[in-house]
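Internal tracking record. Fields below are filled automatically when a chain is submitted to the structure queue. Please do not edit lines marked as system-generated. If the sequence contains nonstandard residues, flag them in the REMARKS field before resubmitting.
Queue: standard
Priority: normal
Entity type: single polypeptide chain
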Amino acid sequence: MALRSFGKDPETNGDHCPTVWFDEERQELVFQGWKASDELQAECLTTGPIPDSEAVVRLPVRMAQQIREALDAAERSPVR
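SYSTEM-GENERATED OUTPUT FOLLOWS
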């Protein structure tokens, strides 16, 4: 796996915090975020089921720059 890190939440202590990566090999964005509350999970379920192999996570909007950079890298990637 070739994970390329684009950063952690800039307002956390750098440990146990939301993070964004781009997996160049698998051509996937990878996110670490806070687990969704039961209330948020229930609201998300109104649009359809969430398979056991998937999860709803929260990322702060202050990470927009890191997410944009990861998206730019994904779009520039030669493999699609």
